[in-house]
Amino acid sequence: MVSRVIPVQAFDLVVFGGTGDLAKRKILPSLFRRFVAGQMPRDAFVIGVARSELDTKSYQDLVMSSLKEFEPELVASAELEIFIKQIKYVQIDAQGDFGWSDLADKVRKDAIQAFYFSVSPSLFGQLAEKLYKYSIASQSSRIVLEKPFGRDLSSARALNAVLKEHFSEDQIYRIDHYLGKETVQNLMAVRFGNMLFEPLWNSQYIDHIQVTVAESVGVEGRGSYYDQAGAMRDMIQNHLMQLLCLIAMEPPAKFSPDAVRDEKLKVIRALDPVNSSDIVRGQYSNSGSDKSYFDAVGNPSSKTESFIALKVQISNWRWAGTPFYLRTGKKLKARCSEIAVVFKETPHSIFGPDAGSHRNALVIRLQPDEGMTMDLTIKEPGPGGMRLIDVPLDMTFAEALGPEVDAIPDAYERLIMDVIRGNQTLFMRGDEVEAAWSWTDPVIDQWVSKGSKPSKYDPGSSGPEDSLMLMHKDGRKWREIS
Length: 482
Ligand code: NAP
Known about the structure:
Layout: E1 11-16, H1 21-36, E2 45-50, H2 56-70, H3 79-85, E3 87-91, H4 100-106, E4 112-117, H5 124-133, E5 142-145, H6 153-164, E6 172-174, H7 182-193, E7 206-214, H8 223-248, H9 257-269, E8 279-284, H10 293-297, E9 307-312, E10 324-329, E11 336-343, E12 361-367, E13 371-379, E14 388-394, H11 397-401, H12 411-421, H13 430-450, E15 455-457, H14 465-472
NADP nicotinamide-adenine-dinucleotide phosphate binds at residues 16-23, 50-52, 92-95, 118-121, 123, 146-148.
């Protein structure tokens, strides 16, 4: 396989929050990788912006040391010196007026302009306002927004309204980095590029779907943010919701931004409210030298969940009767993200009762080891009658695609290049985000109004016992987190 790299046009990418964790760990290394791959051209510039008193030279040094830390294999390349020269810095306090004229001088009018808001969402409105006030952005500029996009429907609506005062929807790129993952896009390719699956992709043939996003780490340095959010707001409302949409949506008429996003929106609007008996929340306890959730966030009375499992139903013709089980949590036994589409059993077994129960499952693995497997039922080899076993048909990309798989851009690389190309397909539209909050808010209200506390679970486990029961009571079972 030969990977194709098509250079994008000249651009100026302004990174507000250019000294922050996300810029250092993800945005700048991603740009460097696209530069090394030949996609970011020599007449493209990155302008870091933050309050820190730095000049361009000291910011370039900061970028250099971040790249050394996060891209150690690439920093020896001759391209590093050239890339660094394409980086500039402007000191600005988003809340004040200092520095904006300097930024206006640096941003070219004849290049693509993108403004990445890698700062607290509380600054989004002021940034949008100042870009307009100082005539820096034009009608063709793009703005890129990081999650969280609001913490409920009313804050998301307010944020959309403030952005729309100065930018139209086709200029706004709301990032959900899960959508930039290769396997997530492959989900659409598998569904809509093959004849094999789509006729079976409905409640007549699919028993249930389970989506797991498990992390082995705890809240780490994000304790104060996380304790205000919890797993429902931090993961389900955005990442797992997006995965659910791509699994459940109808085929769009074409692969264009609004055609895809219209179909995703219909899925969100068809979600049923969730019964309280179909929600399990958990909070990790301490173990050995591992801190408990309470200690990690410094709040011994916290009722925030670090784990959640839900049974979700979609009320439409395709999915009525097929439940979607979603679970995500921290400090679980492994880091693993996967979607398992579990098919129904055959209507009748010609092999008799001893053949046991067998279900095909298409497993789409997002991390680690991106790829897909299809569990098929075959005859157990050897003499002695017809015994059946389930074996995975492995479609791991690394094997099928060879060494070129290493050249596949990661989510941030792809998404930033999509911003420059002006392709919004993999970004969330404003109405989509609001619809997701409309469904999420009443789910959260259920436990907030009751003041209920999450159940405890051991670090390194699969979450609270109740989450296993969520499926057991329906005669189903979660896949192992591994
Ligand atoms: P961070 O490490 O706290 O960095 C914040 C950045 O904003 C710094 O560069 C800071 O620089 C700048 N800043 C703060 N106040 C400012 C102001 N008034 N004017 C101009 N610049 C200001 O945060 P982060 O982790 O990079 O996160 C940035 C955004 O991405 C947040 O919305 C976060 O929720 C989101 N996000 C982060 C991650 C992640 O992995 N880090 C993942 C997903 C989403 P100065 O102090 O020099 O001004």
